[in-house]
């Protein structure tokens, strides 16, 4: 009981620290929130969170670590994520002349969940997290919670170190993510209702963020695939040289 609340609290902070920084997933949540409303934004956030839950299950089964052994598969996933981000960036750019009150088709609300879920499955940041830190949450040990905060980790290291392997830590972690993906859309909708130009501005920023990350991820995937192919050709050359010497 003495470690339950600290573990829950640490997990909550960990989840918030990882979910809050700007990035492609928050760009999708922001766009859905200001264009289609809080429910659509929350659904998009839950789509991203569902991907984390799936990664958690795969990590528990050891399948996430298995993927780490195949760099080519990782590179293809990163490239696919980059292409999806460019596609969603185009969609966000088309909505820069839309306001929340003008948002039309309520049937499109549910598309945000699918969009965020699919994008999260190919998001290199989430994949890398569950290949490294996420797997460690399941094992007995310690984790420097704030050191893994995107962009600020180096300056926050050693401020909050907790024991891992606790169900309370995992519960708090997903609780922190849930708090962000419901609270962030609410804050955006409240701001949009006060400023008419807020929705177009958020859609434009979302398009830029998604497009920028898309280009970076595609470039990273291309470099990884070229490196892998060069390594394969080098191994083939070595094999041919060895065969010629033996024969």
UniProtKB/TrEMBL annotation:
Keyword Acetylation belongs to the record: no
InterPro entries: LeuE-type
Keywords from the UniProt entry: Cell membrane, Membrane, Transmembrane, Transmembrane helix
Name assigned to this protein: LysE family transport protein
Record localization: Cell membrane
Transmembrane residue ranges: 43-66, 73-93, 127-147, 168-191, 197-219
Pfam families with a match to the protein in the record: LysE
GO biological process: amino acid transport
Keyword Membrane: yes
Coiled coil, from the record: none
Mode of membrane association: Multi-pass membrane protein
Organism domain of life: Archaea
One GO CC annotation: plasma membrane
Main location: membrane
